[in-house]
Write a structure and sequence with these properties.
Helix content is 45%, strand content 10%. It has 11 helices and 8 strands. It has helices at 6-14, 24-31, 41-54, 70-82, 111-124, 145-157, 173-182, 200-205, 216-235, 248-254, 257-267, and strands spanning 2-3, 20-22, 59-62, 87-91, 131-136, 162-165, 188-190, 210-211. The protein is globular. The relative contact order is 0.11. The protein binds sulfopyruvate and magnesium ion. Residues 23-26, 62, 99-100, 191, 193, 214-215 line the site of sulfopyruvate (SPV).
């Protein structure tokens, strides 16, 4: 499930998801910039670190194209391992990246050059459990199914632990065809943003290993922020909005404020545990 900061990462874990997608689109959006590598890779890394600190489930970073060539990508991987990020997904496009939902014939990386990048990533990981997911953008760029399969096989041979096959079709047809032809060669990851009507059971039946709900927290957050701002601006009071949004108390609970009070009683001289006197 997508997260874009420490708070959304906490919510994802609290709601029982097994892993976090640190989405490039969502992180960029939350930072107020476009998903076009406008945020630097260290800025993205800092956000991912907040997510790791806030949770105990694996975080997979959307590493876009690896922020340059093999050399930039392998430096990224070393930093991700240092900061205990569990996995990265690197896509076979060119820097600066273009979001997959923009334009039709996007430029793809040369498959051999991209394979070298995957190899460099795998050779650079300092955590043996770290996973590198190679993202195939052939279908996004309007290339053939055969090219998508060939690219996936090449990246798997180069050491990719899994393949993310992306599609922007309104139905799951091409994804299910790809999954069928790919078989069990390596774990498959999908992002059903546009083909959201397909039941997840169909993906399970097709042998797909992981589904990423890629941008739904940032979109949900945006819609309630818009509603709240419009309401307060228009009505100049909070009466009708108060019950529709998260209370300050819930935020205190989500962020573990009680632990800080307990820690003060333990570590600060003269502080005692007082009974809960929070306003919220
Ligand atoms: C993201 O969440 O940033 C992704 C998925 O890369 S998509 O926006 O579908 O390309
Ligand atoms: Mg992305």
């Amino acid at each position: 499930m997508e997260a874009h900061n420490g708070l959304s990462a906490r919510i994802v874990e609290a709601e029982g998801f097994e892993g976090i997608w640190a989405s490039g689109l969502s992180i960029s959006t939350a930072l107020g910039v476009r998903d076009a590598n406008e945020a630097s890779w260290t800025q993205v890394l800092d956000v991912a670190e907040f997510m790791v600190d806030a949770t105990s489930i694996p975080v997979m970073l959307d590493g876009d194209t690896g922020f340059g060539n093999f050399n930039n990508a392998r430096r990224l991987i070393r930093k991700l391992c240092q900061r205990q990020i569990a996995a990265v997904c690197i896509e076979d496009k060119v820097f600066p990246k273009t979001n997959s939902f923009i334009g039709a014939a996007q430029e793809l990386a040369d498959p051999q050059e991209f394979s070298g990048k995957i190899k460099a990533c795998k050779d650079s990981q300092t955590d043996s459990n770290f996973a590198v997911v190679a993202r195939v953008e052939a279908l996004i760029a309007g290339r053939s199914m055969q090219e998508a399969l060939d690219r996936a096989a090449t990246y798997h041979d180069a050491g990719a632990d899994a393949i993310l096959i992306h599609s922007k079709k309104p139905d799951a047809g091409e994804i299910l065809t790809f999954a069928n032809m790919w078989g069990n060669t390596a774990p498959l990851v999908i992002v059903p943003t546009t083909y959201y009507n397909t039941p997840t059971e169909e993906f399970e039946k097709a042998g797909i290993s992981m589904v990423i709900w890629a941008n739904h927290n940032i979109r949900a957050a945006t819609s309630i922020m818009l509603t709240t701002c419009r309401h307060i601006r228009q009505h100049r009071h909070l009466r009708d909005i108060e019950k529709k949004i998260t209370s300050v108390g819930e935020i205190f609970d989500l962020l573990g404020y009680a632990e800080l009070e307990a820690a003060k009683a333990r570590y600060l001289p003269g502080e005692e545990m007082t009974k809960d006197d929070r306003v919220f």
